[in-house]
Amino acid sequence: MSTRGQEIVSVLKEQIKQFGSTVTMVDVGTVIEVGDGIARIHGLASAKYNELLEFPNDIVGIALNLEEDSVAAIILGDYLKVREGDEVKCTGRIAEVPVGEALIGRVIDPLGRPLDGKGAIKTEKTRPVERVAPNVVLRQSVDTPVQTGIKAVDSLIPIGRGQRELIIGDRSTGKTAIAIDTIINQRGGDLTCIYVAIGQKVSKVAQLVATLESHGAMEHTIVVVASASDSAALQYLAPYAGCAIGEEFMEHGKDALVIYDDLTKHSWAYRQLSLLLRRPPGREAYPGDIFYLHSRLLERAAKYAKEYGGGSLTALPIIETQAGDLSAYIPTNVISITDGQMYLESDLFNAGTRPALNVGLSVSRVGGKAQTQAMRQVAGKLRLELAQYRELAAFAQFGTGELDKATKSQLERGQRLTEVLKQLEFVPVSLERQVMILYTAVNGYLDDIAVDKVALFESRFYQFMDENHPEIVKSIAGDKEIDPKTEKLLIKAIKEFKEQNYPEIFQHIRG
């Protein structure tokens, strides 16, 4: 057979071999520069913002800078294995994370890979990590409480389902403790919790997971971890991944709570990435879109109207301040995005007030709308009493001579109210117990109890009510309000308890 004939035969064989196969077009580029977790790629003309890119050795990247002649991407795997000249492919998929019920009780990284050694996670669905926040038409006003189990928070700075409440304070003032107490208090409830750890030590996260497990809270919790040893790219991605996981529950009509611990480290990771991507630096070397970084994340927390499923996503972002400076760049940004803040103070913490809440600087912009009627009945008076106490305490410090009787009694009551609001870590208090002890305190039934005996009074009082008057406890828990009949029974029970446990007070009154 002639050479010409052989060529025709080989072409025909090749065509027969490829018959029926479809031709796919893949946008391919070449790495022209790599370092510090950033790859600059020539080509990839059709790459989209936040698109997943495929590097050799099963390494994944995300396209962030789309320039005229190149694409800059952050590498999510081991960037040391990426070399100049490597081929990069577009996947057509925007950055996404696995979602669903299968994640509950698991510890994962921002890409949905398990970190707890309990085997693979079988999920059928993924969601893009970035999404436009629900518009105003889909939302409804916040009206259902998230019970944290912390007396000071539930009474003075209530959190509603769908709210964004900032926890802010210096290092080691108990910010994470408030978040963990809130998760523990949801045992047996209908609120799924997502805890996102950003830039924390692995040992601290392991300790936190062990605490949640020991209190039976991992049964309704998902932990997303981008630790201090992970790349800045994973730390940047973590809160968006946690938010996407929470949105899946919200869109199925369920309630979810997501905690970002903390957004200060998140902004540091984003600053690092932005500088490496050669974006122009602004104030404190942060990029110009640092506000948008957090606003687009926190705006996704919402409460859907009933006709759209009625689900909710509540966000508790945490911000660490330096020397109590609330007016720094990142703290002021996040304060302006959220619906209120809990401000924790080092001086209060060191003085033994736990949680170390500065009630004057803390605020909830949803307020009483997110409280049950029972809590509203006691909280209004409590707030007023504490405000007056703070004013008088500041005045009394500089006062000389004797104080009048009314001022003294106001100061005495303020001290007892402050004592009642103190609480141990990981010991959340149920709504009905909170209402009973706060009612006792604001109506003066603690005025004749020594300040250092208030904590003992409280624990004995709970026990007494559970054993002798369970009907009152059930009534408050069921009705979520103190009706006149319940109030009479509660006053009678308080007097009965005091007569049994503090007879010397009653002898003094009779005398």
Tell me what the structure shows.
This protein has 511 residues and is of the alpha/beta class. The chain contains 16 helices and 16 strands. It has helices at residues 3-17, 151-156, 175-184, 202-214, 232-250, 263-276, 290-298, 329-337, 346-350, 373-398, 405-421, 431-442, 454-468, 470-479, 484-501, 503-510; strands spanning 28-35, 38-43, 51-55, 59-66, 70-75, 87-94, 96-99, 107-108, 125-128, 166-169, 191-198, 221-226, 255-261, 312-320, 340-344, 363-364. The chain has an eight-stranded mixed β-sheet, with helices on both faces. Strand 3 (51-55) and strand 4 (59-66) form a beta hairpin. Helix 10 (373-398) crosses helix 12 (431-442) and helix 11 runs antiparallel to helix 12 (431-442). The longest helix has 26 residues, at 373-398.
Global mean pLDDT: 92
Strand order of the largest sheet: 8-12-11-13-14-10-15-16
Which stretches are poorly predicted, pLDDT < 50 over at least 5 residues? none
Query: Rough shape?
Result: elongated
- Beta-strand content bin: 15-25%
Tally the beta strands. Answer: 16
Number of helices: 16
